Q: What sequence folds into this?
């Protein structure tokens, strides 16, 4: 039996309609338009309905995928959900989703616990798992609704995080193929981003200092192991943590801002969904022959990869 | 760069010293010695100290591994923790463990959320991830301390579940190599095993009926895709859910009980650690040329694989 070349065939996403405007919170948090538009780059954060569960967000992302492409559900071999805000810890959200989507019994399901680096990890994990097990059709979901844990009075997180989900169809008919990836962890700094007793804590400046140093270094190392130069990349998609962090990473790499994606004004930092939501828009542009993606955050953790158009 | 053949080099485990005796609870639960010894096969359940976290159990399992084999921590490329009872949901437990173990920055860390099928899944996931990313040394931890969520007055779960952790060193110098694996899910039956608001609920008879039907079918299919017969397997290690479920699966497959491992009398059903704790004892027996492992539970989910001695 031959192994297939597994890669990204299609991407779809779901961003809930609910919004909280940051302009309405200027007085509460002592911020101004410059801070909203130039510093964080988030005008509104998307917020799910109170009764929408993580699996529901995934289910709706799958609905968006089905509107784009015909999915034969009976041929789905694996479902992976990246989340640190599951419906509950037992069972895994992918199992609930398996039931909601009415998928076949011979379908592997597992969740991966990772934050903003999760999509890059997830692509490599599901791709290699599919190769290893001769699987042809996989669904990689990201859904990490931080509204479950964000304290609305915490300026550090409340103005930034939005709810969303994305689904990436991995198949043996890919549009984008994965190059080599790199992964890293500084577990000793985990306390910069934690959730205890249902409350998120984020030391934004510690994460910023970490990302500004490690992500450019990682991108440089990634290009080297892929035998590529910065010029060989058509589009850079960094985790959309904030406008300031994306600009700083770009600047530290000496990148023209026009080559770097940033577009979360309307919905915020959607954690592991931030890269696939942007990638969904970039995948249709045929001039993007080679895309670099890099995620960073909770752990502290980072991961970078190259996507090559076939 | 050549890809290595990644497999299991060594296994170690940690079972906390604390025990609750089921003989002391005969009156409370209306059970007798026959039930304890012949039906569930659990005389005592292991229980961690109140201040021992999931990452601590993993850390101690790593200590046991270090006592067996010299580990160069600077060469560890990936850490994966299988758990549905993490220290907390953010960060992932593997990141905390990365810090506790003082591992290098160029080390991938992620958690997988799965229950009793988790070890078989985890082996395939970490093996394929290591192959894909040219990694040579990985640590696969299982640690799912159910004492965090078991209601001590719930007969269905309290007499069964024990706390433990195991660690499997995956390397390019394997003793056991993975054959092909199979995975399955019935998400529509997830409600048979859940945790809501910190309390475990288990419909033991639903899980039993599921396992008695699906696991033998899966083993038969697994042997077929590996071009093997039941006689070709030297040792069968099923998830140690209870003596009754292991015996029923064995009987449904027509297996001589002497070929099937069962040994949880002293510590109980340790969820995803149940297979590696037994495998640790079986790996040293050179006559075990081919071992079949199969896990089943939360999801509902199952996974089976073949381990071949090199």
A:
């Amino acid at each position: 039996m031959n192994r297939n070349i597994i890669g990204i065939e299609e991407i779809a996403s779901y961003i809930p309609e609910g919004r909280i405007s940051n302009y309405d919170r200027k007085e509460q948090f002592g911020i101004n338009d410059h801070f909203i538009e130039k510093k964080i780059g988030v005008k509104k954060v998307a917020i799910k309905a109170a009764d929408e569960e993580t699996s529901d967000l995934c289910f709706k992302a799958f609905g968006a995928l089905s509107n784009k492409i015909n999915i034969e559900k009976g041929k789905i071999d694996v479902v992976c959900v990246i989340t640190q805000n599951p419906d509950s810890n037992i069972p895994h959200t992918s199992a609930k989703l398996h039931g909601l989507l009415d998928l076949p019994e011979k379908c592997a399901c597992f969740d991966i616990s990772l934050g903003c680096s999760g999509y890059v990890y997830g692509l490599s994990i599901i791709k290699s798992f599919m190769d290893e097990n001769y699987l042809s059709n996989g669904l990689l979901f990201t859904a990490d609704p931080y509204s479950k844990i964000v304290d609305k009075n915490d300026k550090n997180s409340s103005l930034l995080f939005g709810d969303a989900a994305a689904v990436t169809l991995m198949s043996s008919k890919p549009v984008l193929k994965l190059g080599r990836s790199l992964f890293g962890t500084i577990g000793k700094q985990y306390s910069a981003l934690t959730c205890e007793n249902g409350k998120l804590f984020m030391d934004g400046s510690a994460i910023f200092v970490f990302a500004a140093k490690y992500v450019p270094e990682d991108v440089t190392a990634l290009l080297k192991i892929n035998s590529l130069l910065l010029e060989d990349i058509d589009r850079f998609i960094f985790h959309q943590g904030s406008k300031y962090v994306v600009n700083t990473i770009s600047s530290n790499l000496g990148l023209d801002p026009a080559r770097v994606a940033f577009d979360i004004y309307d919905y915020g930092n959607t954690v592991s969904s931030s890269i696939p939501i942007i990638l969904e828009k970039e995948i249709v542009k045929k001039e993007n022959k080679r895309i670099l993606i890099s995620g960073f955050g909770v752990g502290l953790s980072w991961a970078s990869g190259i996507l090559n158009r076939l």
Notes: Residues 204-225 of chain B form the longest helix (22 residues). Chain B touches chain A through 64 residues (CB under 8 Å).
